[in-house]
């Protein structure tokens, strides 16, 4: 069967529908006030790209629907006609084979008479194309080939109508034309084509409107984020991206951005606070070192005095360097890069080591140092940092213990991690000061007379945060109890 | 000893070179990476003090990697202002034997360089350390002085072992903290002094000549004559 003649219409229809979609899509930017820029701008605008993709998708799906509709209606009718003609030809050629020309003529007449729908077309012609039987007045001059479907106007019973026909050549030079009147079907097809064309126009309009809508939604959302970013870039750190309250992806994005901004503000506050603290707290030792040196330069009477002054000033400077190193270490821990070095380790020997290191100092001060820990205590994190944190806590506890006091270092596995408790019997920290005690450079009343820069607990706090754990300061009545919790790794055993 | 100093800062380099010469060493100095690499690769040194950030396109780590690539195992101490743990790890991974951050005390630098240079010369594993009449047996883990047995705690034993392995050299508090306790941070309180004084009670107190000497502004040294 040959479909060549019936396939163009749907293709044509598709072409139009697609043209409509594409055409409108491309036309959209021309209404854009910024169209004076170079055409490349069209491809750089993300909102336009989204709108364009939207229009294209809509047009493509509409075209697919049109093709299917065409195939399912007009195409189906055509195929049915072709099948009927084919079956007719089969029957007639059998009659010819059985009874020759007279039988065929008789059959054609029979069929015409029995054709209730009055749509059958037959024409039997002799070798010089004269009519022998059938309902066509004469052989259409254009019908020359046997392998092509013809669809052309013919005259039948005095009226011109549209027929779909195929030519069959019989032995002895006779020719047979079999067809169907498709005037009604052609009208139906025209109707369908018109409907699809209108649909294409509507789809085009909807694609344009939808694209504009998509674009403006996109722009509105971005404008919100970009206005916030611009305000922050201009220095207004109180600005946040507004939430629509719908809890959709854009809200999630906005929340993520706001969380990020909160963190940045916290970090910046931290930096500001630290730099202020550095300026204030390092002024004293720097002043002292400077005074010693100037005093020695002006008033030293002997090389020995000069030497002594220089050594004391060097010691002062070493103290300042130590403070800087502690600050840098805290900053390094807070930056979080150390998390890559996390591993499983046994906390028990670490605690024993720290207790051993400080045991001698404690004993010298007549302070008891007792360790209470299981034989094995698996923990997860940066061993060196945990060691330093515990050392700082023990160092503080020993430092602030009165002679005869007792420092207890206790560790135990708790739900979801480990807990390290260091308790002393010193003066403790008043409840009001405890929250600030973990800040850099905080020095409580009790600490005024002891050496130190007020960075020990700040480092412990940084280590706790790095491990996603916590540092709590409590009243040990009397004394201070520091509770450091380190969560175990959540992704199960291993490592 | 022959020591190479690769350092671009004139003041620091002058200070280090002068100090090393005063301590009796022969010192070569290079103030950029290219000269430093050339000297280190072409001549023989007992130790190299290497800055990390150097002019001349070749930084300290590159020099170190090149030397190690040429199977040159000269002891190298990296002296750098890059103090983060990650930087330290990078330096040691590249083949550095020790890492000292700026600013530093010269005594610390000298003690570490001398320890490094000597370590390169140690001849095989030893089972017994002897300084004067003090004996430390690494196998039976027994300590004797003048044939008299001394009872030490495990940590005291390791502390004494470290001092005896570096007998005649200055050992700083940081070196002890790293070498004996494996601590790599400042413990604030002078815990080391307390431990050394306890060791003295056992090793020196009952005997006429003290062996553990305090070196002012630096650390300790194990030897018979006072410093």
Textual characterization of the structure:
The complex is a heterodimer of chains A (495) and B (227). With 495 residues, chain A is α+β, with helices and mostly antiparallel strands. Chain A is built from 11 helices and 12 strands. Chain A folds into 3 domains: 8-197, Beta-Lactamase (2-Layer Sandwich), CATH 3.30.450; 282-335; 337-487, Histidine kinase-like ATPase, C-terminal domain (Heat Shock Protein 90), CATH 3.30.565. In chain A, helix 1 runs parallel beside helix 4 (183-233). Mean pLDDT of chain A is 81; it is low at 1-35. Chain B has helices at 10-22, 33-42, 60-69, 85-93, 106-119, 154-165, 173-180, 191-203, and strands at residues 2-6, 26-30, 47-51, 76-80, 98-101, 128-131, 134-137, 142-145, 148-150, 171-172, 212-215, 219-222. In chain B, helix 2 packs parallel to helix 3 (60-69). In chain B, 36% of the residues are buried. The interface between A and B is medium-sized, with 30 and 22 residues.
């Amino acid at each position: 069967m040959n479909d060549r003649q019936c396939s163009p219409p749907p293709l044509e229809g598709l072409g139009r529908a697609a043209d409509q979609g594409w055409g409108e899509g491309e036309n959209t930017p021309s209404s854009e006030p910024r169209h004076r820029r170079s055409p490349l701008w069209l491809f750089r605008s993300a909102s336009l790209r989204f709108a364009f993709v939207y229009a294209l998708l809509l047009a493509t799906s509409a075209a697919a629907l049109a093709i299917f509709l065409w195939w399912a209606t007009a195409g189906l009718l055509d195929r049915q006609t072709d099948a009927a003609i084919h079956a007719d030809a089969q029957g007639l050629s059998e009659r010819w084979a059985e009874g020759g020309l007279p039988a065929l003529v008789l059959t054609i007449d029979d069929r015409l008479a029995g054709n209730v729908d009055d749509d059958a077309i037959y024409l039997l012609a002799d070798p010089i194309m004269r009519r022998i039987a059938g309902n066509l007045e004469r052989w259409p001059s254009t019908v020359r080939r046997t392998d092509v479907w013809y669809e052309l106007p013919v005259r039948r019973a005095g009226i011109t109508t549209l027929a779909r026909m195929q030519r069959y050549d019989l032995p002895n030079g006779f020719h047979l034309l079999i067809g169907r009147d498709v005037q009604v079907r052609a009208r139906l097809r025209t109707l369908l084509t018109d409907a699809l064309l209108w649909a294409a126009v509507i789809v085009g309009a909807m694609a344009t409107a939808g694209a504009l809508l998509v674009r403006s939604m996109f722009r509105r959302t971005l404008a919100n984020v970009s206005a916030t970013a611009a305000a922050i870039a201009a220095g207004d750190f109180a600005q946040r991206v507004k939430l629509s309250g719908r809890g959709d992806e854009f809200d999630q994005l906005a929340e993520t951005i706001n969380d990020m901004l909160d963190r940045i503000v916290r970090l910046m506050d931290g930096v500001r606070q630290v730099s202020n603290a550095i300026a204030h707290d390092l002024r004293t030792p720097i002043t002292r070192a400077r005074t010693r040196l100037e005093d020695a330069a002006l008033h030293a009477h002997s090389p020995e005095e000069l030497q002594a002054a220089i050594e004391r000033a060097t010691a002062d400077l070493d103290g300042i360097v130590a403070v800087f190193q502690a600050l840098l270490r805290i900053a390094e821990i807070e930056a979080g890069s150390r998390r890559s070095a996390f591993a499983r380790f046994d906390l028990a020997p670490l605690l024993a080591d720290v207790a051993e290191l400080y045991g001698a100092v404690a004993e010298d001060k007549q302070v008891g140092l007792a360790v209470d820990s299981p034989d094995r205590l698996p923990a997860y994190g940066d061993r060196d940092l945990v060691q330093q944190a515990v050392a700082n806590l023990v160092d503080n506890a020993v430092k602030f213990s009165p002679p005869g006091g007792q420092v207890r270092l206790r560790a135990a596995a708790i739900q979801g991690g480990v807990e390290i408790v260091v308790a002393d019997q010193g003066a403790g920290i008043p409840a009001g000061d405890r929250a600030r005690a973990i800040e850099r450079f905080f020095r409580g009343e009790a600490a005024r007379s002891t050496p130190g820069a007020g960075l020990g607990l700040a480092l412990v706090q940084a280590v706790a945060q790095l491990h996603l754990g916590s540092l709590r300061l409590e009243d040990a009545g009397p004394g201070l109890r520091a509770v450091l919790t380190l969560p175990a790794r959540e992704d199960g055993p291993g490592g | 000893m022959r020591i190479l100093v690769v350092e671009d800062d004139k003041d620091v380099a002058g200070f280090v070179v002068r100090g090393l010469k005063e301590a009796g060493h022969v010192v070569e100095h290079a103030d950029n990476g290219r000269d430093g690499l050339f000297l280190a690769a072409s001549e023989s040194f007992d130790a190299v003090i290497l800055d990390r950030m150097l002019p001349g396109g070749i930084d300290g780590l590159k020099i170190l990697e090149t030397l190690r690539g040429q199977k040159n195992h000269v002891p190298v101490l990296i002296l750098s202002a890059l103090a983060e743990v990650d930087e330290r790890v990078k330096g040691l991974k590249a083949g550095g034997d020790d890492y000292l951050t700026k600013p530093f005390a010269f005594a610390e630098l000298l003690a570490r360089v001398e320890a490094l240079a000597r370590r390169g010369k140690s001849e095989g594993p030893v089972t017994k350390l002897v300084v004067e009449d003090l004996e430390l047996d690494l196998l039976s883990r027994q300590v004797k002085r003048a044939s008299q047995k001394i009872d030490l705690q495990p940590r005291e034993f390791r502390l004494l072992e470290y001092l005896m392995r570096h007998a005649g050299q200055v050992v700083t508090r940081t070196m002890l903290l790293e070498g004996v306790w494996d601590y790599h941070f400042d413990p604030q309180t002078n815990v080391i002094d307390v431990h050394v004084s306890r060791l003295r009670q056992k090793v020196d107190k009952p005997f006429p000549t003290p062996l553990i000497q305090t070196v002012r502004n630096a650390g300790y040294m194990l030897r018979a004559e006072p410093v």
